[in-house]
Amino acid sequence: MPRHIGLRPSRGRRMVNLATGLLATAATVGALLAASTWFLRHSSRQKNVVAVRASEEGHQHANGVAAAEDDTGPVTQEAKEWAALYGKMADEFAATDLNPKAIEPLKSWFHGMNAEGETPWPRKYTEFEPPLGLGAVRLLVIPLDESPVVLRIAASVTADVMRLLPEGTKVFANARGNYHCTVFHTSQPTDPRPDPTRPDGGTDLSLEPSRRRLPTAAEWKREADIVRQLVAATPVPVLRLERVVQASTGVLLLTWTEVGDSSVVSDLRRRLREAFPGASTKQATIIHSSLLRVMSPGPLGREAVAAISEACRRWTAKLRGTRYNPRTLWFIRETEFSTIEGDREVLTLGDAAAPPRHW
């Protein structure tokens, strides 16, 4: 199924249906369109939802169900700081439009950026100039695919914002099965670390990324074993949707905090940093899911910025407080920039007896 979306000057509004279709499987296109229409037209009746794993006695073939849930808002100081930051990100886009300095450097990491009407899609790391080898980029993520409710929300928000972009805007939208929140990079594409258990990352850090070596089989095994142990010792977090944000960097985001006084994700990040002192220095410090990335560095214009900002406010009002409690994390040797495509190991949270599964 294609995963990449572009707005061609001659097609305009027809791209809304195409965007939704590309973000969902063929079997669920109609359901996603209906869900998007329902969310947009029934805001007065919309309640926050909690996305949880269905019981075996209930929907045995679904991994998520929806139920009304009261939202107490961010509780911890960290959650309050994140919520404030998400608000500032939204305000920055509303006031300033896109930031070309944040978008321009990434253009070389995508195909389809030079020809008018061509759809952008991320390059594989082996297609970089100069290339990175298989296994150079490794990360731990929270997948969103355990809950059809959350996936439907993400696809509906994406389709709604897509239709508000000016004609001709180049945009890449993440595939439905690739929605995630990054927890930790043991090795980044801009800062590869073959052995993050060593303080120097197992490499000469003065070397350009493409000249740094890849992990040995023994180093990769040790790294994966440590990640498995840490995930097995981590309880299931309960994420809470705080805000839908269009950032000035071009990325449309679902932003999250944790429910109550929990800080499971931050605690896991701390333990990962302790276990991997030589991991890449650039790390995620908030909890967010990227839905689409605008790749045209030029301004969208006041009308589009106002419409997109209003759509994000509307979605936030409907969805704030939505809960998601993932049961697994994925440890990935990523092969394509930003998409989490690659060798995936599925790790069960809080269960040392659960065997890892490869996907």
UniProtKB/TrEMBL annotation:
Positions of region (Disordered)? 184-208
Superkingdom to which the source organism belongs:
Eukaryota
Name-wise, this protein is: Uncharacterized protein
Which gene codes for it? PLEST000972
